[in-house]
Amino acid sequence: MIKLTRSSAIFFACCALAALSYASPLQQWKKRPMSRFGRVQPQRLQKLPIVLQKLIQNSNRLDYVGEREVKVKVRAVFTTHIEDVTRQGSKTRIDFPSDSPFAGQILLNVDGKRLHYFPKNGVIRIMPGFKDDILTGLLRHPKALLANQVQVQNGGRVAGIPVDRVDLYDRQHRLRQELWIDPRNGALLGRAGFAPNGMALASFQFLSINYHPHIAPNAFELPKGAKVFNPNNRIINLAKRLKLAPFRIPDQKGIQLLNCRKIVLKGQPVLMEIYNGPQGRISYFEVNTVLSGTGNGPDEGGVHSAKRIMGQETIFLVGRYPVKRLQDLLQTVRRI
Question: Which position among 80, 195, 280, 285 has the lowest Cβ density within 10 Å, counted as fewest Cβ atoms?
Fold first, then answer.
């Protein structure tokens, strides 16, 4: 058995923690941009089953209001909640019933941004937009779709509507997603995601849906007086508590700070910052110690890492980017 130094243990723990987010189909579903599908030639799209063509072609054309049940696996236990969904073309709004633990929160997907309103403190968090109902995992790997890794069958009824069920498989022919699609208009009425070992991860299904709703003109506005969350203030406060310098990657083209939080790895408090970039997530880890080694971490499914020493602190970046790109980003890190 190889005995790791404490520095190496912290480094590999950072890499492993970041890699989990890149490996999870659920994360891809919720967070990843879906622009890649536009690179596929239209004539190649015609080779897809008609129901998938409708799903893609009508992604920004549907209007509806509906209620759906969402199940997510958290620490080996499924949790269930209800969402009230309003959709108008490319815009989406999600509300929660009054008896929900998320009651009062509002999620908007408008103008390429995702706005999350928290009523408790009247704060709005801004994140990169995502197509709430169009599977980003479906659109990230169009070549797989064109390689006959799709099966279509009768899906019964969802919300009282006859649907087709589309099963999506990976290159090892393992079932990764099930989609329930209204074949008349391409509306996605249900979805289930699976891990490589076949374990269910998350799902949703509409309980009711109205394709001809009356949508109020202000449906995609948030309460007046709400304040936009300033991530810099949170970094400063967290860094102060952890006795760290408040460093971050500055705002730049294609790179956006999503969130930050405190984690503990191998007994060491760590400031973790999450960024969104053109090739997906970038995880930032800052520790109050100088860690030895090059910091060029292992390639785990395309996930790389890079390290920079700043004073008495060590900063790691981990993501699906070439090491050189991560190193270049590290050189832009500045104190707030």
Answer: 80
Task: Name the phi and psi angles at 26, rounded to 5.
Answer: -65, -40
Give the number of other Cβ atoms within 10 Å of residue 281's Cβ: 21
**Please, what are the domains in the chain?**
6-23+230-335 (3.30.200.100), 33-210 (2.50.20.10)
291 close to 282: Cβ distance less than 8 angstroms:
no
What pTM was estimated for this model as a whole? Answer: 0.68
**pLDDT (tens digit, 9 = 90+) per residue, 273-306?**
999 888 788 999 999 888 766 556 555 556 888 9
Instruction: Label residue 211 exposed, middle or buried (CB < 10 Å: 0-12, 13-18, 19+).
Output: middle
188-227 tens-digit pLDDT: 999 998 888 888 888 999 999 999 999 999 999 999 988 8
Pairwise CA distance, residues 307 & 293, whole Å: 9
Q: What is the distance between the alpha carbons of residues 154 and 106, in angstroms, rounded to a whole number? A: 34
Number of H helices, E strands in the chain: 8, 19
